[in-house]
Design brief:
- By secondary structure, the chain is α/β, with parallel strands linked by helices.
- It has a single domain (about 10-139), classed as Transcription Regulator spoIIAA.
- It is built from 4 helices and 5 strands.
- It has helices spanning about 30-45, 65-80, 95-110, 120-139; strands at about 10-15, 15-25, 50-55, 80-90, 110-115.
- The chain has a 5-stranded mixed β-sheet, sandwiched between helices.
- The longest helix has 20 residues, at about 120-139.
Length: about 140
């Protein structure tokens, strides 16, 4: 029996930022589809440093299998230049649970991570990290 995908997402790239809008909860089927699609976007950054801004809507938690799949995806993205992921959690009844799960995922994947309440604050943090990284590269 094949599992149906749970959760949806959309991707959009501008400059060095990949924007992800995600509506959960998520299972492994969805995170595996995401991993395949994200590879295509990763190549668009052409081995330059890039960052991600993910907005989670609703109770966007991950099953244990989906969590492990996402950790693998983040490892792969880091190898392709991903520096950090800023997350915004909106309209959630389990914000604290989502935050703890996202923190655990990013720690295991060794990716810089922070949560924000709005896009502008998240973008400022990502810009700062990108500038610092670029300065280190030129030294």
């Amino acid at each position: 029996m094949e599992l149906a995908a749970h959760g949806t997402y959309s991707l959009k790239k501008t400059k060095n930022i990949l924007y992800v809008d995600a509506h959960g909860p998520f299972n492994e089927v969805t995170t595996q589809q995401y991993a395949k699609e994200i590879d295509g976007f990763s190549y668009q950054f052409q081995n330059k440093n890039w960052v991600s801004l993910t907005t989670f809507y609703g109770n966007s938690i991950f099953t244990p299998a989906a969590e492990n799949s996402l950790i693998s995806t983040l490892h792969s993205r880091a190898e392709k230049g991903l520096l950090a992921n800023a997350c915004i959690i909106l309209e959630s009844h389990c914000h604290d649970l989502q935050y703890m799960q996202l923190k655990r995922i990013h720690l295991k994947a060794n990716i810089a991570f922070n949560t924000f309440s709005d896009v502008k604050s998240a973008e400022k943090w990502l810009e700062k990290l990108t500038l610092i990284s670029n300065m280190k590269k030129t030294q």
